[in-house]
Amino acid sequence: MKEERKYGNRKFSVSNTDKMFFPKEKFTKGDLIDYYEKIAPVMLPYIRDRLITMVRFPDGIKGKQFYQKGAPDYFPKWIKTKDIENRDGSTTDYVIANDQATLVYLANQASVTPHIWLSRRDKPDKPDRLIIDIDPEVDDFTKVKDTAIKFRKILEDDLGLPTYIMTTGSRGLHITIPLKRQKSFDDVRAFAQNVADIMEKQNPELVTTAARKDKREKKIFLDVGRNAFGQTGVAPYAVRPIEGAPVATPVKWDELENLASAREYNIKTIFERLEKDGDPWKDIDDHSVSLTKAEKKLKKLL
After folding, report:
1. pLDDT tens digits, 270-300
2. Which of 253, 134, 140 minimizes the C-alpha distance to 200?
3. 44-90 pLDDT, tens per residue?
4. Banded pLDDT at 91 (limits 50, 70, 90)
5. Do 141 and 259 touch, CB atoms closer than 8 A?
């Protein structure tokens, strides 16, 4: 089953729209494509000019998945890409989704979840996002929320940084700090690790920074590893490959108390939320900060 989609002067066919992608809710590939078409105006500012890793599920979430960094040769020429040199000297031509047509095209390629770099194409080595991934070993969202609130106190009250919170659409939360593009990934990751270490020292029974799973003792894992060159985070408003088609959702801090899980919203319910409350992250780039002052405050805390 094929149908034509047209966005401005860009036209292409979408296929297999009746294929079941999320069996429990009976959401099809067509539902996924329609979601990305509809969410594009809200989502695009968060992924614009960012390199994308595609997580593709050709036969739906119950089938095989694979990660794809490079744009295949058959992708249309109008899809923007960016060549990045790898450590071995080879290059990867990453996709960049700056428009609705590209977002829909990727969905038609069964890219359920776009993962994005924390930097932009013109300065790939200078991140404009710092992400703390609050990742539970066991599915206990109350502890996840408690961790986020405690972490916020350190970041905002002690270090004077703006923080934004997002459900991952899976089990955890992401705390995001918008940055001015001044520091290297190594500097940003070192800063994030030091803050996570402070959080662990203050809450040793609740959280851990242990990289190895067998050392975490079912505590909340504070993952700062995404703050590295070439690493990615799930894009705001991206769909997760989980039954129910949950969506990674930016929220306000005062909403946390009433959230039952990190899968609160899905591809159908997110639009009612946006219509009612709007997008709580729409001004995030207006609050980008330098880490210089925070680094000085952090040294005193350490």
Report:
1. 999 999 999 999 999 999 999 999 999 999 8
2. 134
3. 999 999 999 999 999 999 999 999 999 999 999 999 999 999 888 89
4. very high
5. yes
3-state secondary structure of 271: helix
Cα separation of 183 and 225, whole Å? 16
Reading the block at residue 50, the tokens are: 């960012």
Amino acid in position 158: D
* Distance between CA atoms of residues 102 and 90, nearest Å: 25
Cα separation, 199 vs 192, whole angstroms: 11
Contact yes or no for 220/206 (Cβ under 8 A): yes
235: left (phi over 0), alpha (psi -120 to 50) or beta: beta
- Between CA 122 and CA 86 the distance in angstroms is 17
Burial 222-246 (b: 16+ CB within 10 A, else e): bbbebbebbbbbbbbbbbbbbebbb
Tokens for 37, please give them. Answer: 């078409």
Determine the Cα–Cα distance for residues 5 and 179; give it in Å rounded to an integer: 37
Q: HSE, CB side, 13 Å, CA atoms: give it for residue 122.
A: 4
Could you tell me if 163 and 126 are in contact, meaning their C-beta atoms sit under 8 angstroms apart?
A: no
Please spell the DSSP secondary structure of 183-236, one letter per residue.
Answer: S-HHHHHHHHHHHHHHHHHH-TTTEE--SSGGGSTTPEEEE-TTSSTT-EEEPT
- Using DSSP's 3-state secondary structure scheme, residue 258 falls into helix
C-alpha closest to that of 249 among 229, 73, 206, 260? 260
